[in-house]
Structures are given as structure tokens and as C-alpha cells.
Amino acid sequence: MNYELLLPELIVAASALIVLLAVFIKDGGKKFAGYLSIIALLTALILVLKDGLVTPAAYFNDTIVIDPLSQIFNMIFLVVALLVVIAGIRYNEDKPNAEVFYSLLLFATLGMMIVAISNDLIPLFVGFELASLATYPLAAFEREKRGIEASVKYFVIGGLSSAILLFGLSYIYGVTGTTKIPEVADALAVNLMTPASLLGLLFVIAGFGFKMALVPFHMWAVDVYDGAPYIVTALLSSASKKMAFIAGFKVLIVGLIALRVDWYIGIALLAVMTMTLGNVVAAVQKSVKRMLAYSSVAHAGYIAIAFVVISKSLSAAEIAVAGGILHIFSHALMNLGAFLIVAVVATAALSKVKPGEEDNLDNYAGLGRIAPVTALLMAILMLSLGGVPPTFGFFSKAVIFLSAIKADLLWIAIIGVLNSALSLFYYARVVMYMYYRDPVLDRVSEPLMYILPIALATVGVLLLGLYPPTYEWAFEAARTLLAMGGIL
Asked: Which Pfam families match (predicted)?
């Protein structure tokens, strides 16, 4: 058997262990760990891009499958991790135990990649827990009160959601007698509407609802994003939460679509509440960090429209899944860049404002004059988050809304467009502060190791929406997923 397709995962796993051993290097271990992490992630990313749209290959008794779906999510996770590690070189300059930071980040990335390639509920759950256990201590990496509080909250809610999810999966196993996801779909097709199936479905939706931060399971996300270090928040919002969506796509769509019950109404209600509450609360925030956190909740609602469409109309399933994948990709880039810019501004504001006010919107006043590069990148990212053409954020939202229209769900497409219009209010407000107000800060340093990943994310936001292979990959991944569930 050819194991070459598993090289990206093996490289990330080996580098995570080697980087952890760098704590024994007296001088230079910090830089060694950082640059080795960059080399490992870049090598793994190149391998994933080289293989791209692979023919599905199964390993270890079909529990692991490498296919276009796993490849596109591995690419997203590796891009986010790589950009965070580049920023981490500057972030860790004055931090002890930087080697532990890089090692945990690599283990978290490995866990996400395992979820992406899982074709069985057991490795999927193991990957979930590996990524979660690695990110809990990252949230408290600076060992200050807010970070520790965020980490504890993240740990408790993460443990609770894992327990709920595992409980639901155990019922599904009890009904089907298998943990292989395609076989779960086949078995459920002949066990329609049993109480155990519906109870298992309910718990699985609740478990993924927590992990995707859908309303009403979203409160942990905002508090954790607000309390964690900026660079860790960038990782959590751009990659960790996206891991829940690939797991959701596999289990909810492939495994549970076979139930053929009208659960789309409940999912639609969750999606609408998530979009609306996230945007309404984001609009009244004065902290840009919390605004982006609530905005992330709203974007989870946009992505959840894909689940609604699939459960309503299988004829629109392909475009819905492709739209969900595209928006996961675009939002990962947009949020990553925006949170890193918040880190740049907050660092400059620390000496000027009271502790806890470094994220205030007032600090962005006049940023266009005192930090023109940062302001320009932030403006592009804000417009893309708001869905302004011709950015990637516009095209990915458009595909999702079109899928809803194709599925005769015009009402949810209209609600999505109205929510997107509302979000433009608070995104444009940041741009107006940067260009139409006088500066309140004397100077904002624009360190290269922060600006470089932000610029790369912004270039991706500008170009990928106009790059046809992006859509070809997303649609091929969608077809792969639906074929696994016997839908195509």
C-alpha cells in the first residue's frame, strides 16, 4: 500500500514531538522550534497542494480516507497554522516556554487533520479530543487572569460538548452496529425513525452545536476568544472551530441524512438565530476583539445554511456543501488576518490606555495615518467579512445563498442577505474610524512577522474568490462527501 498520501500528517506529528524536545536546548531552542514548525507546516502544505484532487485512498481497514474533501480541509488547517506560527515568531520573542507553544499548536493541527481524514467515528473523536486538549492550555499560555479563566471555561464546555457528542454517537452505534461512517449511513437507511436513532441524532446535533458555537450554544466561544491571547484566538476562530464543521459535514450529512426526517426546520431555526444574534450583538460592541468574536458566531450561522439546504433538498446538496466549504475557507483567512491586526493595535495601545481597553474601537481612530499598511489590510478584511465584491467573502456567501434559493428556501437566503447588510454597519464603522478620525495613539509599530501573515491572508481574500480552481476543488470535495453518503 502506498502511504505517501499520509506524509503531511506524519510530518506534522514528527515535528510536534521534535519541537517539544527543543525545551532541552539551552540557548536558541525557541528560534529552532519556531523555524522548524514553519518548515514542517510548509512542507506538509506543499505536499497537500501537490496531490490536490486525489483519487480516494483508504487506509487501516477503511478508517482513514484521503480524498478531495480531506485534502481541502487539511489545506485550510495547514495554511492557518503556518500563518499563526509565522506571527508566533514575534509573539514568543519575550515569552518563556515558546517550544511548548509551537508543540501544542502542531499537535492541535494534527488533531484537526485526523478529523479531516477520518472515515470512522472513533478516529474522528480521537482527532477532536487531540485538537481540543492541545488548545486548552494555549488559551492560558500567558498565565494571566483572563486567559486562565478563558481556558477553564473552554475546558469545561469542551468536555461537556464532547460528552454529549459521544453519548449521541454511542446511540448511533447501538442502532447501526458499526462506527464506519458510510456503513452508518447504510444501516440507518433501514432503521428509520426509531427512538434510539432520533435520540442519538438530537445529542449529536447538540454536541456539534456547542463545537460550532451555534446559538444557543455559543456563549463559551465569545468569552474564550476574548480572554485568550490574540494569536491563540486567531487559531481557535480560524481553524479549531472549522474542525467542527468538517466533522459535522461527515457525520450529520453522510451518516444521518439517511434518516430522511424533516429536521431541516430545527436546523434552519438554529442558523437564523445564530446569524441574527451574532450580528446584532456584534453591532453594539466597542471592543473590536469581542466584535469579531460575535461576528464569528454570525458566520457560523451562514455556514449552517448548508445543513439546512441539504436536509430540505438533495438536488441542491452539492452547491450547498461547496458553498459551506468555500465560506469556511474564506472566513478562516479573513478572521485570521483581522485578529492578528487586533493584536498589533492592542500592543501599541497598551502603554496609552487602561488595562482592558486596548481593544477599544477608539484606538483605531486615524490608523490610516499612523499605520497605513495595517489600516489598508484591515479595511480589505473588513469589507470581505461584510461580503463586499469582488472579495472571497462575497463569492463564498453568494454560493451559500444561491444554494438556499435553489432549494426553494428563498426566505432563509433573504434573512442571510439582510444579516450580511447589517454586518456591513459594524465592519464599515471600523474603516471609518481608521480613515475619518484623528489618531489617539502616537505610533503603531508594524512588525514584519505580523504584517507578513496578515498580508498573505489578505492576498488570499482578494485573489481566491476569482481563482476558478478554488471552486473546482470545493465542488469536487462536495461530490466526494455526498457520494460517501450515497446521495449522488
From this structure: Proton_antipo_M (PF00361)
In this prediction, residues 105-114 reach a mean pLDDT of: 96
Instruction: With CA atoms as reference, report the closest residue to 402 among 292, 313, 295.
Output: 313
pLDDT for residue 487 is more than 70: no
Residues 6+ apart with CB under 8 A from 306: 249, 320, 321, 323, 324, 400, 403
Residue 421's pLDDT is 94
CB-count burial class (<10 Å; 0-12, 13-18, 19+) for 199: middle
> Number of structural domains, the chain?
1
- Predicted pLDDT of residue 115: 94
Grid coordinates given for 90 = 514575534
Residue type, 5: L
145 alpha-carbon distance from chain centroid: 26
> Cα–Cα distance between 120 and 401 in angstroms, integer?
31
Angstrom distances, CA of residue 273 to CA of 169, 208, 237, 361, 416: 26, 16, 19, 26, 11
* C-alpha distance from residue 390 to each of 66, 258, 387, 452, 473 (Å): 32, 38, 9, 22, 20
Q: Is 408 left (phi over 0), alpha (psi -120 to 50) or beta?
A: left
As a whole number of angstroms, the distance between CA 173 and CA 176 comes to: 5
pLDDT at 200: 82
CB burial of 233-253 (b: ≥16 within 10 Å; e: otherwise) equals bbbbbbbbbbbbbbbbbbbbb
Give, in order, the Cα–Cα distances in Å from 294 to each of 132, 382, 457.
21, 14, 21
Q: What is the pLDDT of residue 161?
A: 87
Question: Is the pLDDT assigned to residue 419 strictly greater than 70?
Answer: yes
**Residue 46, domain member (yes or no):** no
Residue 324 lies in a domain: yes
Tell me if residue 120 falls in helix, strand or coil. Answer: strand
Length of the chain: 488
Residue 257: pLDDT above 70? Answer: no
Question: Residue for cell digits 472549522?
Answer: 242
For the chain, how far is it from start to end, CA to CA, in angstroms? 28
Range of the domain at 453: 262-487
Cβ of 10: how many Cβ atoms within 10 Å?
12
Measuring CA to CA, which residue among 448, 422, 449, 474 is closest to residue 299? 422
CA 53, 59, 62, 63 dihedral sign is: negative
Instruction: Evaluate whether residue 449 is within a structural domain.
Output: yes
Task: Note whether residue 88 is domain-resident.
Answer: no
pLDDT tens digits along 361-383: 999 999 999 999 999 999 999 99
